[in-house]
Design goal:
395 residues, mainly alpha, Serine Threonine Protein Phosphatase 5, Tetratricopeptide repeat, 0% strand, single chain, elongated
Amino acid sequence: MSPRRNLPANRPRSHRRIARLVIGLVLLTGAGWGGWEWSTARCLARARDELLRNPLRAEQIAAEATLNWSFQRETAWIVRGRCCLLSDEIPEAYGCWSNAARPNRASQDDLLALADAALNIREWRLAEWANAAAERSNRNRRIWLTQRLMLSTHDQKWDRVAIEADGLIPLAGDHGPTWMAIAEAHFALNRFPLAAEAFRRAADAKATALSEQQRREMTPRWAQLLIDLGEFDAAAPLVASELASQPNDAGALRRHATVLRSQGNTAEALSTIEVAVQVAPDDERVTVLHATLLVDSGKNDEAAVILRRVIERKPYLPEPRHRYALLLREQQNWEAAVSQEQEAQRLSQLQRDLLNAQFAWNTERSPKLAAEIARILHQLGRAQEARMWERRAQP
């Protein structure tokens, strides 16, 4: 019989061999994969058990799970990121979640917590990533919008800041961090009375109160804002609290002296500002207030020396010239007083023009606007800054 005729009889036997080989390979692969799956599941269970007790140990266990080729590898990266977040390893948490095949599988609570932690350490781009990844759910809409507002304020996207701040007010409720973000936005938009009210709401929040760090950061800004608005009685307890925690801070001493002056306590205000001068002798706000209190105390000659020194050092500041003009007027030196007052008004107008131009730059960023900012800076005598803007104005 020819070999060709024997082929059909041999074919089923060869098929059975191939089938047994395939089945063996599948069983072997399945056993290996099942071992990986079992090992990964065991690591994840151990990591979750250790998560709150010892986040560092939990992170080490979760790291073992990420080495396995498992269907749960993505979950392992997410759990490892959560461990890093609890250990305050913020960039590492981002790295773990971005390594997952689908990082948006991380829970929205985790992503919002990562964004909050990143905002606290001024990791703006990381906060942007985490906040954007958390957008998919409306369950924590207030927290998500609060973070969006903080990021928009940092990026100086003023049109968005105004819309987001106004839209967040109805959702703020009794949530301190949300009111603090709204206050910062209003302050950046020069809505000072609204900012003061938002700071008050943030301080009074009970359902979700501010952390101690947030309260420490807020108090000086709120106190200074109230002083600028002339609400000295409201600022007094804030300044006292600030000074109790930072007795050698020049800003706190200056605000305390300002409040004392508003209460007619000139002698104590002068002694307070003299301490501030020793702490920060180059702070023009401190030296100008020092000169003002010297005038209030009848020490005009000493005040004149201080004001002339500030004007020589920073000729582009309008406030020292204005104070010096008032002093010259008291001395009946009319011609010099008029000259100083006119220069102070010119500088004040240039400062307003500069602020408006810089505000517009955040949305326009054109060479023409950069050239305008450079021109204003040259008129203010700030040549080094002007040259930087001139380079931006080049096409």
